[in-house]
Every structure is written in structure tokens, then in C-alpha cells.
Amino acid sequence: MLEIRLHGRGGQGAVTAAELLALAAFSEGRHSQAFPSFGSERMGAPVVSFCRIDDRAIRAHDPITHPDALIVIDPSLVHQVDLFSGLGTGGFVLINSTRSLAELRLGELAERVAPERLRTVAATEIAREELGRPLPGAALLGGFAALTGAVGIDAVAQAFLDRFPGAVGEGNARAARRAFAAVLNGSADGASARPRPRPEATALLHAGATKESPAQAPGLVQLEGSQAVAEAIARCRPEVISAYPITPQTHIVEGLSAMVKAGRLEHCEYVNVESEFAAMSAAIGASAAGARAYTATASQGLLYMSEALYNASGLGLPIVMTVANRALGAPINIWNDHSDSMSQRDSGWIQLYVESNQEAVDVHLQAFKLAEELSLPVMVCVDGFVLTHAFERVELPSQDAVDGFLPPYDPRQVLDPAEPVTMGAMVGPEAFTEVRYLAHLKQMQALDLIPEIAAAFAQRFGRASGGLLHRYRTSDADTVIVALGSVLGTIQEVVDELREQGQRVGCLGIKAFRPWPAEEVRAALAPARRVVVLEKALSVGIGGIVSQNVHTALEGSGGVAIHTAIAGLGGRPITRATVRELVANARAGRLPSTSFIDLNLDLVQRELEREVARRRSGPYAENMLRDVGIVAASPVT
What we know:
Helices cover about 40% and strands about 15% of the residues. The protein is an alpha/beta fold and about 625 residues long. The strands form three sheets. Strands 6-5-4-1-3-2-14-7 form an eight-stranded mixed sheet, sandwiched between helices. Strands 9-8-10-11-13-12-18 form a seven-stranded mixed sheet, with helices on both faces. Strand 12, helix 13 and strand 13 form a beta-alpha-beta unit. The longest helix is centred in the C-terminal third of the chain and has 30 residues.
């Protein structure tokens, strides 16, 4: 796998460049993935984006810490941030600059990286001349194609033509070709010069893997995760979509809005509401009136609709909702963890978690079928940013195929003036226990129905997605990591590495968290002697959430050590190195029953000492940000 990291500043197109590099690789039949590292975005602030290219499916979604190649869009970052962190001696470096390496004070880097793998190119100047704007992305990708041979220049040029039709695309394509010639010939701006040797990066790809041309696979596209979800929802033919934007789910409802406006999504009412509570209330009304209803939310938005969530499940209304998982505040945090959906685990909604954007597409189709068969609401949990903003390869099913899988909505209960009924009537002690028991019983019925629907999906569409669990090399594993969501792909990569070293390690992915598949979890973990539950949420005052359910499933199973590992809170990366260390500590007996992965105890200790020293010690979140050097947390003067 070829892993590329791009460094720039806000407004310079680092995110777009990564996406178009991935698109170019996709057009040549490779698997590719692009995703940003979002922060407090502002014009001119440092921005990092990532791209992976391979000849086989890409599972990992962790940030790239040891890149094979670096593209530096803004040379002023060279001595401001640690651009070259993790870069090996065999890596490639392309820097947007008219200055020499000596002038950039990169002599040490030049000694570490082979000269034929280290280049500068006047990308901004080329862009000004060819495009009329200082947007160097196309020129840098053209130079990258020449430097590495990882993608072809025709594919790079076409990616820009496809994204930016007309004069803008043509100017970018010219800039890419000119920079390609510049790097290939060793000149600064594309003028003729003596050709330079070009090392090929293709050795980093999985040679011999079968490449699938997009032209040979109908429905195969390179798409942002949010847009892929929007396309899947549209094919389910919702009749009412209630929408209120909140990061990171906004692109989903924006995409659906555009489809409704363009007439692509027929017989659908798109309702712009004033809050998340209103979004769920509108969905409740629409579902009760007999319409197939959908909405999406995240984080504080999910909390704001909490009262209505209980109403939707208590009334047995089959609403489908995407939760783009994001941390809860305060303090404010826009990054991914599972604290939002986990906070509503007892709301009566079925909760399904996905590990990839392909699964996000597939499971939404299954969610409508499941919800409408049981007359229960379903939330599909998709990791915010990690998946929603990842630009990768997905196969979108045809409308005919979805229609054959998901029949028109036939409600089990509906408000009809011809047959008046009351929904949400007062229920006293004489029947309330029975009502709640029925809600529990229907969730238990879902334990049988979820795998049935997943099997029917696999038979119709030819790929496995969803279900209750995903067992990965667990049949003989003595150590198993249990997790949910996008981190599963990263864990599976590590499992394969450790298996090659002779370690019997496995991974168990929880796909359905509510209802909890206790018997299936117990059976899957039966061979294990050690179970590590990797959690992206925290139950304050007790610890793990998923691990409590794992303990319940394994109750009475002697000799199994269960460890809780809290990780990834507020978007902290869970890397392959993190997972390797976690497994090593578990196998060596160094892992406590509950641990916080990558926790900076010194930072916590400083704040505790501050509280002892001063009664009015101030907001601890801001104090700790200042301790780690975050400028935004500096005191007002």
C-alpha cells in the first residue's frame, strides 16, 4: 500500500488534491482512499490530508503516521510543523517551491532521502500561468505522478477535467502536464532539461492483486462517504426527509436536498426544520401518517432530540436515522467518538454500526427493511469524518435492485381518518409494564431478523454486509479485540501482521449493539483466553460501555480475562501502532482491567496540582490546552 500525506494551509486545496489523487488512481482500476485531518479550520491554518493507493481493498482508516510520500503544498510549513515525521529513508518528497533544497535549509533531509526521490517544483507559478490562480494542487499531482510513477499523468489530468468542467479543468490539466514534464526532466517549470532517473513507487502496492476496471463494474464509483449514504437513502425512496444541519452529517442531507430539488428523488417532501428536536418530531408525524421517513444528526443534535427519540420508539414508528458519530461537549469537540449514540443506547432504537462506507451504503438499505418489518426505529451509526468525509471506492446498487430488495412501505399502524385510532395514549400501571416488555420483545425478535435480512442482502447483491457480528480470525484466537465502527479495519490489518508472526490474535466486530447479541458474542469469544474491548466512549464513573455488555455475555465463562481499553475519545487517532501495543500489553499481562490508551498523565497531574494550589484555578479544559501549547486557549489580554 502506498500512503501519501499532504501538508498545506487552509484554502490551498490540500483536501481536494488528496481526493483527486485518489480519483486518478481509481480511474486506473486501483483501490484508493482520501480523507482530511480536520481541526479548527480557518484560512491559512495548517491542514493535513491523506491518500492511500493499493491494488487490493483498503481497510485501514487511521491517519498516516509513516508516509511513503509527502506532498508539501506550502513551503513555509517546512520549519513550522514536523512535516517529515515518520518518513523513511525510501520515501518520496515533493515540495512546492522555486527555491533549492539548500535555500529551504533541508540539507539534513537531502542526506536522508535519495536525491531522485526528493524534488521541488514551481507549482504555484505554473498554476498562475496556466490557470490564472495560485492553486497548485494540479501541478503538484502532475509532479507527483512523474516523481513516483504511482499514477499516470493522463489519469491526473482527467480527474481535474471531471471535477472542474470547462476552462478551470482545462487549465488545471495543463498545469498538471507541465509540472509532470518539469519533474521528469529535472527542470523548474517544464522547460526541456536532461531527464532524471525516476524510481517507481508501484513496488509498494500489493503486486499481483486483481484490479477491477470501473468500466467493468456498474455502480462502482469513487465518492465521499456522506454522498454515498445520500445515494443509498435516495434509492430507498423516502417520502419525507426532515433535515437540520450539524457537522459532520450535513453533507448527507445537503445531498438529498439537491436530489429533491433536481427531481431525482420523486414523491419526497424535504422539510427544513428549526432544530434537531423538530427534525425528529417531523419524522414522527410523517411516519405516523404512513410515510417512509428519514433524518440524520450527530452529537449535540442527537441529545437535543432525545425526548423525541423515546417517543418514536415508544410509538413503534419505523424511522431510519443516520448518526454521524461525534463527541459530546462540553468542552466543544467536533471529532469522532461514539459518545453520542452510546448515550441513547436505552432509547429503544435499534443501533447498527458500520466499519466502512460500503457497509454504510448496504446497511441503510437493510435498516429500512428491518425497521418496517418490526415497526421499530433504527439508527445507523457511521463514524463522523473518519467515514463521512472519506473519499473512497463504493459500489452503489441500481434502483431496480433496491426496489427488488426493499418493498414499498406498508405500515403496521397508521393515522387514517376512515379508521380513527389514538397513538401515544396515556397508559397507567395496569398495562405500562406490558407495553415496555413488548418493546423489549421486539428488539429480541430483531436478533433473528437482522441476520436474515443480511443473508437476503448478500444473496441479492453478492456481498456480505451488516448482520450481528463480524468474526475475523477468531476461531482459534487466544486474544480477541472487540470493537465497533471504522477502527475495525485498522485492527484487522494488525491482526494479519501478528498472525504472520505466529500470534493467535483475532478481531470481533459488533455490528448490532442494540439489541445486544449476547449468545452470538459468547459463542464467538469461546476460544479466547483474553478479550480486549476497545471502546470509543466512556461511561463516567464506571468505565467501559461495550465491555459491560461483553461481561454479561461471558458471565459464567471461567478463565477469560476481559480488559477495557478506552481510546479515540474526541477524535484522538487509533493507529496501527496503538493496536500493536495494546495486544502486546494484553499478551504480556501488563494490561489493567480498565485503561485509557495514549493518556497523558503528566497533563492531568499538572491540572490536579493547580487545583490544589489555587481555589480559583480556572477552567481545566483551557488550562490543559495552554499546557500543550494550543494558541487558541491563550488568556485574553
